[in-house]
Write a structure and sequence with these properties.
Length: 193
């Protein structure tokens, strides 16, 4: 069976980001999920500058190597997971910037959202992200993983140890993401020019 390509995108670019523990936990779990081949795309390491391409992304006429590489990575994906904190009631600026670089490469693919933060669990970030993602024709799942007070679950070794409800949310999200991945993969291969 061919595996679907899942890109796990870590969206925080802070130097001492606590969310890397959440990302590590998620990636370890998703490696065992049947049907996906996961690759981590860490926006801190990718380090895209603020969008400065001279042409609109709908044209696909990229001038810079970092854009061409980002385009290649997103184009080959069948699905996405965004692991995100909440900044001032909104999505991380690096995530918005990364989305804005491209257009066609995102289209007709599903995305799961894993948010973390304080009392809201990053849900305001997730909600804002949905509006942006649907504009580039990404289908965000209504199911998600929201982790309130996430630092309480990071042990002294920096390992995230979630409560049962978070683990249950992971399974629900991944099962729904797989359904949409299969459906949209079929659609992209049979109904789009």
């Amino acid at each position: 069976m061919d595996l679907y390509k899942l890109k796990v995108i870590i969206t925080s670019t802070r130097e001492k980001r606590g969310g890397i523990a959440v990302a590590n936990w998620f990636v370890e779990k998703v490696k065992k999920y049947e049907g996906f081949e996961a690759e981590v795309l860490d926006l801190m390491k990718i380090n895209l500058p603020m969008v400065h391409e001279p042409n609109h992304p709908k044209l696909g006429q990229y001038m810079y190597d970092h854009t061409k590489e980002w385009s290649r990575k997103i184009d080959e994906a069948d699905a996405f997971i965004f692991i995100m904190p909440e900044y001032n009631y909104g999505m991380p600026p690096a995530m918005l910037n990364a989305i804005d670089y491209l257009m066609r490469e995102w289209m007709y693919k599903p995305a799961g959202l894993v948010s973390y933060g304080g009392i809201s669990g990053g849900l305001r970030s997730a909600q804002m992200s949905k509006q942006v993602l649907t504009t580039v024709k990404v289908m965000p799942m209504s199911e998600g993983v929201a982790i309130p007070f996430f630092t309480k679950y990071i042990n002294e070794d920096g390992v995230f140890e979630p409560i049962e409800s978070v683990t249950n949310s992971y399974q629900i999200l991944m099962d729904e993401l797989m359904r949409w991945t299969k459906g949209l993969h079929y659609m992209r291969n049979h109904f789009l020019d």
